[in-house]
């Protein structure tokens, strides 16, 4: 029987799909960590996939 | 620490840890372990279809931590939010008791998933097997020409840092790369680089690390509470 992490992974993927294009929950924390360690805004955008045409689209209205 | 003696009864805490779980039957056992000076909770039960689940946690007052032990959810019940419910309960109990952290040992897919939930590896895990396993997997992906130069450079910078939270940044790397898993057409499934580096290290078995969710770090809490459905 799989551990709880398998179930949480399903929830993670749901949350990722539901997020606005290019962004996911947790991105702000990763940005904090990267800035704290001397990474540039460009590095952060590249790690998080925020420098793609898809990410530059406005968030959908809900 | 709260001073409500009734609420802090071990039986109350055991029930609080599985609150809202849709069990048909359930059993809770609490053990006061004198040798380690902690409280060990074991819960199990059956769901509507007869499938069984189990969950174990340890309250370590000396360490100020709630340790998440083995927790199994039947595969057919995945995706219904049961695990998120258990993690919400663990968080609420930890808060109720004034604990400062939730700790666990992450293995397999959990070595990636828990990083995404805001857990941070401890120094020993980061400087030991975690960095080494990620570096080995990165070399495999580079040999397959699956990783771009910029992503390669970033991951190497992450691996060169002392801050274990850089593992959370590696997990966030989003460039799609070929997985070790193959789809119905026989081709490798594409997965984010972070997942490939961490959950598919060691020949697909994943990394192994011990780590902490720090309950008094607002940035960490935003991530965790968002994922477990307690975010604002």
What does this structure look like?
The complex is a heterodimer of chains A (62) and B (232). With 62 residues, chain A is mainly α. Chain A contains four helices and no strands. The N and C termini of chain A lie far apart (38 Å). The radius of gyration of chain B is 19 Å and the shape is globular. The mean pLDDT of chain B is 92. Chain B has nine helices and nine strands. In chain B, 39% of the residues lie in helices and 26% in strands. In chain B, the strands form two sheets. A seven-stranded mixed sheet of chain B has the order 1-2-3-4-5-9-6. The chains are: A mainly alpha (62), B alpha+beta (232). Chains A and B meet through helix 1, helix 2 and helix 3 of A and strand 4, helix 2, helix 3, helix 5 and helix 6 of B.
Mean pLDDT of chain A: 82
Indicate the overall shape of chain A: flat
How many DSSP E strands of chain B? 9
H-E order of chain A = HHHH
Oligomeric form: heterodimer
Order of helices and strands of chain B: HEEEEHEHEHHHEEHHEH
Low-confidence stretches of chain B: none
Trace the largest sheet of chain B across and list its strands.
1-2-3-4-5-9-6
Into which percent range does the helicity of residues of chain A fall? 55-70%
Averaged pLDDT of chain B, please?
A: 92
Of all protein chain pairs, which has the greatest interface, and how many residues does each chain bring to it? A-B, 32 and 49 residues
Q: How much strand content do the residues of chain B show?
A: 25-35%
């Amino acid at each position: 029987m799989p551990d709880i992490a398998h179930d949480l992974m399903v929830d993670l993927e749901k949350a990722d799909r539901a997020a606005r294009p290019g962004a996911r929950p947790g991105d702000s924390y990763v940005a904090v960590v990267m800035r704290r360690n001397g990474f540039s805004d460009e590095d952060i955008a590249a790690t998080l996939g925020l420098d793609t045409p898809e990410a530059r689209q406005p968030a959908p209205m809900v | 620490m709260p001073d409500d003696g009734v609420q802090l009864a071990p039986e109350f805490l055991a029930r609080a840890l599985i609150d809202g779980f849709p069990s048909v039957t359930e059993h809770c056992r609490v053990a006061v372990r004198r040798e380690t000076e902690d409280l060990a909770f074991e819960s199990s039960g059956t769901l509507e279809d007869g499938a069984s689940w189990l969950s174990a946690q340890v309250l370590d007052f000396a360490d100020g931590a709630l340790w998440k032990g083995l927790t199994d959810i039947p595969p057919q019940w995945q995706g219904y939010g049961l695990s998120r419910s258990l993690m919400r309960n663990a968080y609420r109990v930890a808060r109720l008791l004034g604990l400062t952290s939730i700790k666990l040992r992450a293995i397999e897919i959990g070595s990636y998933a828990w990083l995404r939930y805001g857990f941070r590896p401890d120094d020993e895990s980061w400087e030991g097997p975690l960095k080494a396993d990620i570096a080995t997997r990165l070399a495999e992906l580079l040999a397959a020409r699956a990783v771009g130069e910029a992503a390669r450079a970033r991951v190497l910078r992450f691996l060169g840092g002392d801050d274990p939270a850089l593992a959370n940044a590696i997990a966030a790397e989003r460039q799609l790369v070929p997985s070790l898993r193959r789809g119905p057409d026989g081709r490798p499934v594409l997965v984010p680089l972070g997942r490939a580096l961490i959950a598919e290290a060691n020949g697909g078995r994943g990394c192994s690390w011990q780590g902490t969710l720090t309950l008094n770090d607002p940035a960490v809490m935003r991530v965790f509470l968002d994922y477990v459905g307690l975010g604002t």
